[in-house]
Amino acid sequence: MKLLAKRDGPLVYRQRFVTRLTHWVWVVCLFFLLLSGLQIFMARPDLYIGQQSGFEFENRVLSIGAAFNEGELGGVTTVFGKSFDTTGALGVIEDENGDFRPQTFPGWMTIPSYRDLATGRVVHFFFAWALVGTLLVWLVGSLVNRHLTREILPRGRDWAALPRDIADHARLRLHHKRTYGPLQKISYFAILVVVLPLMVATGLTMSPGMNAWAPWTLDLFGGRQTARTIHFVLMLALVVFFVVHIAMVLLAGPINEMRSMITGWMRVDGKEDAR
């Protein structure tokens, strides 16, 4: 299978300064938000639908915990009522001495690596507000330089060309053009305009202070527990996007891709105009 990754074309200025700056700030923010968020999640490793967790009723959609089975401690992850043995990965992990102990996630997946909810919350809230500020900077900058309307906002022709672009990616025929392809546009639009704002909104909805100031947010997301579940699902979507994004960078030519996100300049296919 052959990659369509010509490197005989001209260098074009593809990534503006605001785009590059906010991209790298987001990398840092999302790293600390993910690991500190998992630290916070360990305090109650369950997800529910509704305003509150069930006591006399069952509204749980996910649970990660530990249980004894025939005298042996094991990790159990339950999704929509179906349980899975996740010993060694989730619920019960192996420590440095080779012993199994109850813990939702391994230490390398959380900040701090040990159980410390207070520190996890401090780290999470700091980088959450840094993410919000960076998102606002990107939005204003992208409206001023028209990056959002010209290169991110999908148009009719992008949707029409999407099936072919998906097929090219599936065959690893990766193109280098001056502008984003249909799949890139739709993916970036979904992350920047839908997922990240929803992450912020659902995060705020979990705050009692926010609930007192704007109680309508609870109705908007169907309750605090539903907002927490949506927040968690969006986190998983970001992780999947990150993995695919890194894979595409490696397959498309990491030196060329990294150069474009550091200096702004990218070498494109064929005879693209170097405007």
UniProtKB/TrEMBL annotation:
Keyword annotations from UniProtKB, A to Z: Cell membrane, Membrane, Transmembrane, Transmembrane helix
GO biological process: respiratory electron transport chain
Domain of life assignment: Bacteria
An annotated Gene Ontology molecular function: heme binding
Cell location: Cell membrane
Gene Ontology CC terms, in alphabetical order: plasma membrane
Transmembrane segments: 21-42, 122-144, 186-210, 230-252
Keyword flag Transmembrane helix: yes
UniProt topology in membrane: Multi-pass membrane protein
Gene3D superfamilies cross-referenced by the UniProt entry: Transmembrane di-heme cytochromes, Chain C
SUPFAM superfamilies noted in UniProt: Transmembrane di-heme cytochromes
Ranges for domain Cytochrome b561 bacterial/Ni-hydrogenase: 15-264
Protein name per its UniProtKB record: Thiosulfate reductase cytochrome b subunit
